C-alpha cells in the first residue's frame, strides 16, 4: 500500500464526514485511512462506519493525549509506504493524492507538505482568517508559498513522510502545541530531504470565530518560545515580527494617550516639550498603522472579491499578529526570565 492517511480527531464528527467524502473522489485509490479518536465526547465512529464499503478505513478510540501522540498511535498501526498527516478540518480536492504521487515521481522526498486554501463554501470569517494566515502582509506569504524566507517546514494539517523515517524519528513529541514544527526540525536535523509540494494543497477551515483564532495564535506564540528553548537556532528574525508589531501598536496607543492627556487636562504647560514629542511620535505610529490597514483592506478585497472580507481581514490580521505576539511575550517572560516549565504558559489557554 502506498499511502496511509492519518487523522487525529477530537469532537469533530461533521468535519470528519466532509473529509471522508472528499476522499471518495480521489483519482488515486491506493490508500487507507486511519482515524484516531482522541478521547472525544462526541465520537465519529458512526460516521466512519458509513464509509467502510467505500474505502479501506480503520477507526480507533483512545484516551486523550493530544494530537501528536494520536498521530503516533495511528502511525504504529498504519501499513502504507508514506504517511499523510491531515487535520480533521481539511477537505481534499480530487487530485490531491495524484499531485503527491506526481511530485514523488519527479523527485524523491523523505518528508513533504503542501499549502492550504479557503473553499468558496467557507464563511466570510473563515476566509478572512485564511487570508491572514497566508498573506504577504502578515506572514510574508511563506506559509505554503513558493517563495520561502526559510526552509519549508511541513505543518500537521497537510504533511507527508515516509513511514520508515517517521518510525526512525519516533514521530511527534509530547508537545501539545508546535509539535509539528518540532517534528519538522528533527526531520531536517536527521538529514532528510524535505520539500514543498505546491500542487498538493487542501481546503483548510481553520477557526470559525475570532475568539478561537486568538487562542490558537496565542498558543502558537507560546510554542515558538518553547521551540526556542529546545532548539535555540530555530528562532529567526521573521518569528520576532509579530512581537515587534504588538509592542509597536501598544506603544503607539500609549504615546497617543499620554501625549494628548495634558491637553485634555489643561496641564500641557507643565511638560510641554515631552507632551508634544509623545504626541508627535504617536501620530507617526498611527499613520503607519493606518497605511497598513489600507493595504490589508485593498489586498484582501481584491483577492477575495469581497469588501466585507476585506474589512474582516483587518480584524483577522490584528488578531493573528497581536495574539501571537502576546503569547510570545508571555512565554518569554515565564520561560526565559522566570525559568518556568514548558507547560506553564498554557495553563489558562490550552488546558481548559
TrEMBL record:
Residues forming coiled coils: none
GO molecular function: glycosyltransferase activity
InterPro entries referenced in this protein's UniProt entry, alphabetically: Glyco_trans_2-like, Glycosyltransf_2, Nucleotide-diphossugar_trans
Residue ranges of domain Glycosyltransferase 2-like in the record: 4-166
Transmembrane segments: 237-265, 277-298, 310-333
Gene3D superfamilies: Spore Coat Polysaccharide Biosynthesis Protein SpsA, Chain A (3.90.550.10)
Keywords noted in UniProt: Glycosyltransferase, Membrane, Transferase, Transmembrane, Transmembrane helix
PANTHER family noted in UniProt: GLYCOSYLTRANSFERASE (PTHR43685), GLYCOSYLTRANSFERASE 2-LIKE DOMAIN-CONTAINING PROTEIN (PTHR43685:SF2)
Protein name: Glycosyltransferase
